[in-house]
Amino acid sequence: MINNICREDLFHEYYSQWINIYKRGAIRDVTMAKYLLTLSWLKQLVPTLKLYQLDRITYQQLLNSYAEVHERQTTMDFHHQLKASILDAVEESLISRDPSRKVIIKGKTPSAKKPKYLNQYELHTLLRSLELGNSVNWDWFILLLAKTGIRFSEGLALTPQDFDFARQTLSITKTWDYKSGGGFMPTKNTSSQRKIKLDWQTLMQFSELVKELPCSRPIFIKGRVYNSTVNDVLAKRCQAAQVPVISIHSLRHTHASLLLFAGVSIASVARRLGHASMTTTQKTYLHIIQELDNQDVDIVMRSLSTLN
Question: What are phi and psi of 266, to 5 degrees?
Fold first, then answer.
């Protein structure tokens, strides 16, 4: 237990116990993996650092060492995962003062990022380049994600019975654990469980594709699935269509962006994406919302200029 830790113990030993007590069983496996990765970096960077030695200078040096091989945002995440445990150590009088106060977050220069989304013309061009045959393939998967904005793991978990062709809806009730070899898992949160409206063309296409498939088995799973495999297929299609190369997750950003530019409310977009709150949607698509605000200002000024 934490109570058995003393000031002479190693920082990474304390952090390991803190993770087991406060995080294990309370967070998703993928999040737990991030905490364990942070633990491994502690063992590597400060293997002999003891709790009583943890002051502002040693903590800043730890962050600086981490930042030498990581970008600033990754260093920020590393800091946040450590800070909660440090505050608990201060509260337990294992550390006299908070060493994480007023830290400076550094990091490597970010590498060139892939575009986060396509515009409407680019998306149409991409979809026209897909090789859509008479049987399920990754091109059909790309089309469905572009049309719905669902997450990669949600798309992998889809079964024929998730399509309600009469009501024109697609039910999102589960995800596929592709990172650990397969199997159904719960959705990211309760808000992620939702019904998404589909256009008739897409519904009719999938009604033919899935009619002979087992109703409760995943449509797109035929063995072990890797995110990189599907990203490679998408990259080839983007190159063939001569549009910016994006990732599978960027199809979700593209879907949301087009809806916002079309005038769909933030609340509706948040529900369609399965966000826990509109705040998440606003933060993720702030640049688009600001651009729309500028357009609104132009409309307001043009309207006012016509008044006498």
Answer: -60, -40
**Residues 199 and 53 both lie in one domain:** no
pLDDT tens-place string over residues 87-102: 999 999 999 999 999 9
Two structure tokens written together for 19 = 């993770």
3-state SS, residue 164 = strand
- Burial class from Cβ neighbours inside 10 Å (0-12, 13-18, 19+) for residue 133 reads exposed
* E strand residue ranges, the chain: 163-164, 169-172, 175-176, 184-185, 194-197
Whichever domain contains 229, its CATH number is 1.10.443.10
Based on the structure, what is the number of domains in the chain? Answer: 2
Q: Which domain holds residue 140?
A: 120-293
Q: Which pTM does this prediction carry?
A: 0.69
| Chain segment 60-89, per-residue pLDDT in tens | 999 999 999 999 999 999 999 999 999 999
